[in-house]
Write a structure and sequence with these properties.
The protein starts with a helix and ends with a strand. It has helices spanning 2-31, 35-43, 51-63, 66-71, 146-158, 164-176, 179-184, and strands spanning 72-82, 88-97, 115-124, 127-133, 137-138, 143-144, 185-195, 201-210, 228-237, 240-246, 250-251, 256-257. It has a 6-stranded antiparallel β-sheet. A 6-stranded antiparallel β-sheet has the order 7-8-9-10-11-12. The protein has 7 helices and 12 strands. The protein folds into 2 domains: 51-157, no CATH class; 164-257. The longest helix is centred in the first third of the chain and has 30 residues, at 2-31. With 259 residues, the chain is α+β, with helices and mostly antiparallel strands.
Length: 259
């Protein structure tokens, strides 16, 4: 009888030990995630963007930038450069503007000169963190980059300065010696002066008449004898003619129609 009681007690002790061991293991699995679960959760975290998605973000940014929206056309993707972080890229684009300058120029006096631009847009985890146009224009803050402003200021201080009157004489001589005026122009008349964007810059407006239609040297062309009125806009910057447009269609510097 005693032996039977001892055997029963031993069986009870053994069974209690096995139950306790099983419940302890189950507790561990509930309190802490397995290493496999932790790795899967980290690898599928939110906020990651593919290169293709980031390219689309950069492209839309340029399309909606003030410079492009004002008069940009023919946006073209050039290349992608990998940045230093995991989900960062620098996307390079090119496009053309119908006028010079940057940003919204609706209140500025503009010259119709086709201008090529290069935009570099940095996208980090789906956000545009830097955007520079032609290495001089901050597309995010819509202003000239400070280093570029300083260099322009230094250049202006080193260059010889010209008064408005002197610059007007330079602009007038430019028109008088232009192929269009020299061929058959007459009655050159000064109209007005428009202040430029820098300290010694002005846009001078003139009017004159030609005995024939057309532009430039037309000595080898068949001409109609029609008195034609012209308006010339000549930009002088620090004593140099930097832009000259006739009737908003003829580039007087390069002697060609504006595209």
């Amino acid at each position: 009888m005693k032996r039977l009681i001892v055997v029963v007690l031993l069986l009870l002790i053994l069974s209690l030990g096995c139950v306790g061991q099983k419940s302890s293991h189950a507790g561990e699995s509930l309190d802490e995630p397995s290493p496999e679960y932790e790795y899967r959760e980290e690898s599928t975290g939110e906020g990651t963007y593919t290169e293709e998605e980031s390219l689309e973000i950069a492209q839309n940014y340029v399309l909606n930038s003030p410079t492009y929206k004002f008069d940009g056309l023919e946006l073209r993707y050039v290349e992608t450069n990998k940045a230093q972080c995991q989900y960062c890229w620098v996307f390079v684009f090119e496009f053309t503007s119908r006028h010079g300058g940057y940003g919204d120029r609706s209140k500025q006096m503009l010259t119709q000169v086709m201008t090529k631009h290069t935009a570099k847009v940095t996208v980090e985890n789906g956000k545009v963190v830097a955007a520079v146009l032609d290495d001089v224009w901050d597309m995010i803050n819509q202003e000239m980059i400070e280093s570029q402003q300083e260099s322009c200021t230094e250049e202006e201080s080193l260059n010889e300065t010209y008064t408005e009157e002197e610059s007007l004489d330079i602009a007038r001589e430019f028109v008088l010696n232009s192929p269009t005026y020299k061929f058959d122009g007459l009655e050159l008349r000064y109209v007005e002066t428009i202040p430029g964007e820098c300290s010694y810059c002005w846009v001078f407006v003139f009017e004159f008449t030609s005995r024939h239609g057309g532009y430039g040297d037309r000595s080898k062309q068949m001409l109609t004898q029609v008195m034609t009125k012209h308006t010339a806009k000549v930009t002088v910057e620090n004593g140099k003619v930097t832009s000259a447009v006739l009737d908003d269609v003829w580039d007087m510097i390069n002697q060609e129609m504006i595209a």
